[in-house]
Amino acid sequence: MRAAGAVPATIAVVDGRAQIGLSEEMLERVARDGARFAKASATDLAIHIARGSCAATTASATAVLAARAGIRVFATGGIGGVHRGDAGDVSHDLVALARTPIAVVSAGAKAILDLPRTVEVLESLGVLVIGYRTGEFPAFYTGTSGVALDHRVDTVAELAAIARARWDDLEAGGIVVCNPIPEAAALDATSIDIAIATALAEATAARITGKRLTPFLLARLAQATGGASIRANRALAVHNAQVAGELAVALGG
Fold this sequence. Notes:
The chain is α/β, with parallel strands linked by helices and 253 residues long.
């Protein structure tokens, strides 16, 4: 982000305070103590602020806090969405993005989710989904999912123009900018699909649901792929940060 000319503001709840931008010392603390941080969506923020506890923020919580601070762009790995199966498990990320005037640069939604249904819910909620240099909704670890998008944009300048029109002229909500993982960092689609199916079966057998499900599945994928899923996650996160930095600068201009 700094290379693009933007100023990064990492967001977390630390000792009951919603921090918009972390000092080097705080970043070190989050990195070292992350396992002891709770996972907070937008609906959980009041609990952690009132209790003086620490929490890492999901996309919904990050969007809400960033927007309150006047930030219009944030980067994440992948947003939450509709989980597979018929349990009705839908991430609050989708609702929060519909209500919040912010652009989220992500590699689609996490591949463990039901991607076609996630795109359908985003559309139903009125979230604008744009493919950045792609016509498909990315599948996180791979660049394609087979889910076609209605809108493709190939320049950051056009992204910025669309964002201004949506927020300034229409006073509308969030935008999901779908930025596929770099091709060189993508995983083999067949292999990762098999690993996901195995992890989902293990979660079902162990009756793991709710907030515990996503961390469990991602940990099992890391084990099944020998760490390749973690390396891919880092690569796509860096790529998203680069595009988000460019978009932030374009909007600032």
